[in-house]
Specification:
- The protein is an alpha/beta fold.
- It has three domains: 123 residues, Probable tRNA modification gtpase trme, domain 1 (Gyrase A, domain 2, 2-Layer Sandwich); 130 residues, Four Helix Bundle (Hemerythrin (Met), subunit A) (Up-down Bundle), CATH 1.20.120.430; 169 residues, Rossmann fold (3-Layer(aba) Sandwich), CATH 3.40.50.
- The protein has 17 helices and 13 strands.
- β11, α11 and β12 form a beta-alpha-beta unit.
- α4 packs antiparallel against α5, α6 packs antiparallel against α7 and α6 runs antiparallel to α16.
């Protein structure tokens, strides 16, 4: 049990609210809370049964002043989130009250929790594994229902079960291979060698399948990075406002109105779209607009998807041709805007430049709303065309997990090549063990303090 001291933190968001929660975890969580709590019947929290809510008041022991009317939830070890004693003081929302109660529990002997320390204790105490701990953060940060569902599946242990199943299979193969190391006088029979090789190839195939889910699943976790680009006054900001259905970006007829990247989130069929309206790309001398153009170009390079906007009511300009050259190899939706006006652009012109397999041309009117649903469908299909049909439930959405699976796969390939190539059996055993360790890193069987610090530092304080 990880209970060297008792930690405390405000576990609800900053600001006003109906309810605020101060959470404590550790051996002295109940006694510390009891030291500032007074119930009408003078009932002690120490005598309360597990998972009970007790009504009372928080009192400043130094002055006897009443701080707030509260409900205190008692959760005793090991039946709690951290597997330690937990007390949650539910008070009225508002930072003054919450901070005063937190100040009192710290004076009574608690320590201010570090970011993610409650969840870290849940991991260290064995209530959840490392991939489930990361799923807690994904659940908190999820922006769409699909992202929430993926996080919940991981929190419930679907990925953990898959990884543990693969590790069990690998452990069995390792045991067989290492038997021949311990008894070198015994040669591996042809039938046994064939069975072992098939088992290795089976696990290799499962790792390949698992790895393929990352490119699509990560979009639901991180959001699809999408840049709206084009020369000035083609309607980029109008398109952003139309997609968001609110006036987020300033729209004027003056070129260069947008000078910085404006970022917002949009939900398209459960896909969180991290959409960026960029400065119009052109040759400029103004320092501020020049920096905006540089950021626009960086957005193109870093985006998962580019929406290249062109004014269909005007003849294409040099800046348009330069834009086409910049984005033609990217996953791009070419949006021919202003269809509410007479068109002078030949759409067949674009066909010779669309070389990315997912790129296509859409006709839209950002001001009238024409083609926006078609554009949304094109955005979704450009990266997630087969998501509903191809997904089997267990996915890798976390970059750390992806890297671990990649390294495990590399070790498996080396083990298969060594075994099939009749190299010394020790090489095969070494690579199998390395693959086993890499998979163990996903669920926390094999980990380091540095990895734990990096993961839990991303959490908010109080979770």
């Amino acid at each position: 049990m990880f209970s060297e001291d008792t930690i405390a933190a405000i576990s609800t968001p900053l600001g006003e609210g109906g309810i605020g929660i101060v959470r404590l975890s550790g051996d002295n969580a109940l006694s510390i809370s009891d030291g500032i709590f007074l119930s009408p019947g003078k009932k002690s929290l120490l005598d309360s049964k597990n998972r009970r809510i007790i009504y009372g008041h928080i009192i400043d022991p130094a002055t006897g002043a009443q701080i707030d009317e509260v409900l205190v939830t008692v959760m005793r070890s090991p039946n709690s989130y951290t597997k330690e004693d937990i007390a949650e003081i539910n008070c009225h929302g508002g930072m003054i009250t919450l901070r005063k109660i937190l100040e009192l529990v710290i004076k009574q002997g608690a320590r201010l929790a570090e970011p993610g320390e409650f969840t870290r204790r849940a991991f260290l105490n064995g209530r959840i594994d490392l991939s489930q701990a990361e799923a807690v953060l994904d659940l908190i940060r999820s922006r769409t229902d699909e992202g929430r569902r993926i996080a919940v599946e991981q929190l419930q242990g679907s990925l953990s079960e898959k990884i543990c199943s693969l590790r069990d299979g690998l452990t069995g193969i390792c045991a067989h291979v290492e038997t021949y190391i311990d008894f070198p006088e015994d040669e591996i029979e042809t039938a046994s060698k064939k069975d072992l090789l098939e088992s290795m190839l089976g696990i290799h195939g499962e790792l390949v399948t698992l790895l393929k889910t990352y490119d699509e699943a990560r979009f639901f976790r991180e959001g699809l990075s999408t840049a709206i680009v084009g020369r000035p006054n083609v309607g980029k900001s109008s398109l952003l406002n139309a997609l968001l259905q609110k006036d987020r970006a300033i729209v004027t007829e003056i070129p260069g109105t947008t000078r910085d990247v404006i970022e917002e989130y949009l939900n398209i069929r459960g896909l969180p779209l991290r959409i960026m309206d960029t400065a119009g790309i052109r040759d400029v001398k103004d320092a501020a607009e020049k920096e905006g153009v540089k950021r626009s170009l960086r957005s193109i390079e870093n985006a998962d998807l580019v929406i290249a906007v062109f004014d269909g009511s005007e003849a294409l300009r040099e800046e348009d041709f330069q834009m086409i050259q910049r984005v033609k190899s990217k996953n791009t939706v070419f949006a021919l805007n202003k269809t509410d006006l007479p068109s002078v652009v030949d759409e067949n012109f674009f066909s010779s430049f669309i070389i990315h397999p997912s790129s296509l041309l859409i006709h839209i009117s950002a001001t009238r709303g024409d083609g926006l649903e078609e554009l949304k469908e094109a955005i979704f299909n450009s990266c997630l065309k087969d998501w509903k049909e191809g997904r089997e439930g267990i996915v890798v959405a976390n970059l750390r997990h992806k890297i671990a699976v990649e390294k495990a796969l590399e070790s498996m390939e080396r083990a298969i090549n060594a075994f099939d190539g009749n190299l010394p059996i020790e090489i095969t055993a070494l690579e199998l063990r390395d693959s086993l360790d890499k998979l163990g890193g996903i669920v926390g069987i094999v980990t380091t303090e540095e990895i734990l610090n990096k993961i839990f530092s991303e959490f908010c304080i109080g979770k």
